[in-house]
Automatic annotation (TrEMBL):
Protein's name in the database: Bet v I/Major latex protein domain-containing protein
Listed GO CC annotations: cytoplasm; nucleus
Family classification: Belongs to the BetVI family.
Higher taxonomy: Eukaryota, Viridiplantae, Streptophyta, Embryophyta, Tracheophyta
Domain of life from the UniProt record: Eukaryota
Domain Bet v I/Major latex protein: 27-176
Pfam families membership: Bet_v_1
Amino acid sequence: ITTVAAHIICAGCTCTSLIIIAMASTNSWTHEIESPVAAPRLFRAGVMDWHTLAPKLAPQIVASAHPVEGEGGIGSVRQFNFTSAMPFNLMKERLEFIDAEKCECKSALIEGGGIGTAIETATSHIKVEPAANGGSVVKVESTYKLLPGVEVKDEITKAKDSVTAIFKAAEAYLIANPDSYN
């Protein structure tokens, strides 16, 4: 959950959280999403367990997903396998940092999702913070370095829309399943 620098799979459209952009230098974008769901629940469902939920909530995009290495801690790798709706077959991401109490993590794209074809490197930093109303605010920062010659179009907007769709899909699931991820 992927081609410019958000690391999650979109639930309602045909793009992933890593969307291809373009510039030969390192760039970044940020995005915030408000949710009525409490931060710990949204973080667990929309970030840490998205590999379990994505095939259920977005089967038209994510054929399957699973851990490849590790138990969910730093260094763990998970893989998302996509349907023909995506321009690439798979994406692997490695967890670089996690603070479950603060609902914060950072991951790096390590295979697929445009690595080597359009993107040299891509990382995503996600923090889900409590909001005053009992809900939460998802803060995403995506940093990426494009390969020389790759052109930027409207991919940042697509990436932000994709990340929003991911968290809104997780939010809808959690509202419909109030006992999940407590």
